[in-house]
Write a structure and sequence with these properties.
Elements (H helix, E strand, L loop, with lengths): L13 H13 L6 H11 L8 H26 L2 H98 L3 H13 L7
Helix pairs in contact: 1-2, 1-3, 2-3, 4-5
Protein name: Replication region DNA-binding N-term
Keywords: Coiled coil
Organism: Cribrihabitans marinus
């Protein structure tokens, strides 16, 4: 008798279910819980209070099991040569599929390696470009520093010229205050413009 995990035990045996399936199939119908229930109640005197839904699960399980057993018997009935031939064919198909997958895997690995190599080259190029930019920035910084030095020198020269001009203006102002301005101015100019003679 079939067993249930919960609830009351069924009011039929597995043999009765199998016989009910046979009766339904003999009439050309598809075995279902409801059809097998009717056959069992009419032909096997099974009480009508059984659950058709639960019976249907048992019917489907037995049909699957019957199909499996029939397939196993058919395979077992084959001669050994046929089974060996199938094994050889299966091995050949398996080898062909594995070889195909292996080639695809190798191709994908090669493509990935090429991508990695290309990325490494791109990174190397980017690093080289960054180094060049840094060198240019250093050169520009040195050039700017040189320009700053030149600017400072020019400013110093300009300040010195301004101081010299201021001193000359002060000297001229002082000379103008003197009575003999013209004579002293001429003497000053003559002295300033006269060539310097080297002493022996």
């Amino acid at each position: 008798m079939t067993e249930k995990k919960t609830g009351r035990p069924p009011k039929y045996t597995e043999a009765q279910v199998l016989e009910g399936i046979g009766i339904v199939e003999e009439h050309g119908d598809t075995p279902t819980g409801e059809a097998v229930k009717k056959a069992m109640c009419v032909h096997l005197d099974v009480p009508p209070g059984i659950n058709a839904q639960s019976l249907d699960k048992e019917v489907q399980r037995l049909l699957v099991e019957r199909e499996r057993q029939q397939s196993a018997r058919l395979i077992e009935a084959l001669p050994e040569t046929s089974r060996n031939a199938v094994r050889e064919i299966s091995q050949a198909v398996e080898s062909a599929i594995l070889l195909h997958l292996g080639r695809e895997h190798d191709e994908l690995r090669r493509i990935n390696e090429q991508k990695v190599t290309q990325k490494d080259m791109d990174l190397a190029n980017q690093r080289a470009q960054i180094r060049d930019l840094l060198m240019k920035l250093d050169d520009q910084a040195e050039e700017m520093a040189g320009l700053e030095d030149e600017k400072r020198i020019l400013n110093d020269q300009l300040n010195a010229a301004k101081e010299q001009n201021a001193a000359l203006k002060t000297h001229i102002t002082e000379l103008e205050k003197k009575e003999n301005f013209k004579e002293e101015m001429l003497a000053f100019m003559k002295d300033a413009l006269a060539p310097k003679t080297e002493k022996a």
